[in-house]
Every structure is written in structure tokens, then in C-alpha cells.
């Protein structure tokens, strides 16, 4: 039975640990509120609060009239936790970008060593589509920016897949999902659509040329430019000039 002090938090901790320890597994249906409150020895209001918190984190799905279920663990689950943390402290966005630099630089390095011809064709196809859209538009509407951001996501996830590391892929996809709103902010900074194309092409050329160090450093430079653009759009701190990258290096 759960102690009465901080009841909703203790219910949350109890159910969280049940899921973590796999005593509750994805797809399991929890007992209804009456049964669960009787089993735990608690009233329904703090139970509802705990269930709602677990749902917000992506651990549970509450179907009104249909019961409460344990969710599968996927990149959306991790994204929801990261988004929750940024709601609590928005400054964590920059910590998350630092993590992204490390992971994506390593993913680019790994991809340069093991990417298949199929991976390279997919990356190049995404790049050509993005380059076409940018070249054909002088003004970027919200719809066009959304399309460009979607292509950005596909390109970075494609590199993560090409690294052949499922953990790296899961974290990169999750981090990019969590940062989606902030990534959109960076796209409104002057020259960013063109600048991103240049960075992406440079990263791709390094991966295709199997130049691991250049692939890694180019990815870090790219994400630094995005961070600078986000800071500029937020007007929170002075931004380093993103400028334009050095001419593409043949590899």
C-alpha cells in the first residue's frame, strides 16, 4: 500500500518503476480506476493526476471509455520526455543541441565508413529536392519552410540510419522531434535555406568520399550554425555570425 504523503508523486513513481522493471509491458491494460485505487489504497483524484502525468510523458495512453494502456518504447516516447524537460526549463534546448552535435557528428563519421550505395542515393535525392525548392523560390512561405524542415529531418535521419547504429538513430530522431519548434525558428534567419543546402552538400560529399574527419567536422559546423540562428531568432544572447561556409572541399 502507498503512503499518504505526496500521494500523486508516489503513485507516479510506483507505476513508472513497474514499467521500467517490465512488470508492466507495452500493450498491457491497467486495471480501471476503481480497482487500481483500491489495490494501491489511494483515492481517485491523485491517481488520475499520476496517470495523466505518465500519459504526458508518453508512457501511457488513456482511452476515454476504453481503458489505460502501456505504450511501446520508440523515438516518440523519448521525444515526449525531452519536450517535457524543455517545458520545465526552456534553456535546456541549448544543452540538447550540444548533445545533438556530439551524436550527429559521430553518426556522420560512422556513415562515411559504412554507408551503402542505397544510403548515398537516398541522401542525394533528398538534397536535390531541397536544392530545387530553394532555387525555385525567392520568398519562403510557412508551407515551403515546413517542407524544407521535413526534408532536413529526412536527411539527418538518413545519415543516422546509414551509421548502422540503432541507438544513435533512436536518439537523433528523438532529439530532432523534440527540437522541431526551435528548428523552425532558425529557418526564418536570413540566408538560412541556402546556407543549410551548402552544409548538407558538404556533409554528403564527405560521407560519399569516405572522409570521416571532414564528415564529422562539417556536421558540427552545421549544427553550430543552426544553434546560432536559433539564438538570433530568440534574441536571448548575442549570436555568432553564421556567415557562409568555406567552399566545398572535394573528397
From TrEMBL:
Keywords in alphabetical order: DNA-binding, Transcription, Transcription regulation
Pfam families cross-referenced by the UniProt entry: FCD, GntR
Gene3D superfamilies assigned to the protein according to its UniProt record, in alphabetical order: GntR ligand-binding domain-like, Winged helix-like DNA-binding domain superfamily/Winged helix DNA-binding domain
InterPro entries in alphabetical order: GntR_C, TF_FadR/GntR_C, Tscrpt_reg_HTH_GntR, WH-like_DNA-bd_sf, WH_DNA-bd_sf
Matching SMART domains: FCD, HTH_GNTR
HTH gntR-type domain location: 5-73
Record-given protein name: FCD domain-containing protein
Native source organism of the sequence: Pelosinus propionicus DSM 13327
